[in-house]
Please model this.
Amino acid sequence: MSDIESLKNDLVIASRILANEEICDAFGHISVRHPVDPDRFLLARAVAPELVTSDDIIELNLDGSAVCDDRKPFLERFIHGTLMAARPDVQSVVHSHSRGVIPFGITDTPIRPLLHSCGVLGHDVPVWDAGDVFGDTNLLISSNDMGADFAARLGNGRAALMRGHGSTVVGRSIQEAVYTAVYLDVNAQLQAEAMQLGKVKYLTDGEIDLIQSRLGDAKPGEGYDRTWQYWARRAGVGPDAPVP
Ligand code: MN
Model:
């Protein structure tokens, strides 16, 4: 199997995982940078993640224009291209409207990592507010200008929220991006629960650095095999089951 076919398969597995773990519902998407041309990326056509097959994956330029494909792309494809343009280290991007994080995008309480598996979120999880620069919009990132503004808010981080809309995470691999998207929502849910009980003891910056360096020990973006296999099995796709 070629690199590109293998990445398409992984995108299908990732899409099914994100749907099965309730990170994505009918909306949300995951991309991967093209293995040969870093100025392109792969993303499904506009279809619910639960339904994505390898035939649905299309190739886009970083400006969001399609490479020889007239199928309907996601409106919010600009999130992926602008982040990959701003961050050469980013290989994969997940955008979702997962519910757990929404309260943290509309209040002044920031998400802070509180569980070892959530150390990948990094020191800060900023909130981007479309209204700050663009005024009243439908809140969707529907242009390269909005994408670039969001990418600037994410900076060198791993995850950022979009006020009243959702969140986006980046990874150095598809597996890392999926892991970060799942554990962003886990952290949000646990943080909301813990805050009801009292003062929360969060991970320290030093702990976060140690957790991140452990996961990156082998090669950047690796170290996520166990969760990938587990979630794929739960979703009923690869690595042992046929990929649609
Ligand atoms: Mn969205």
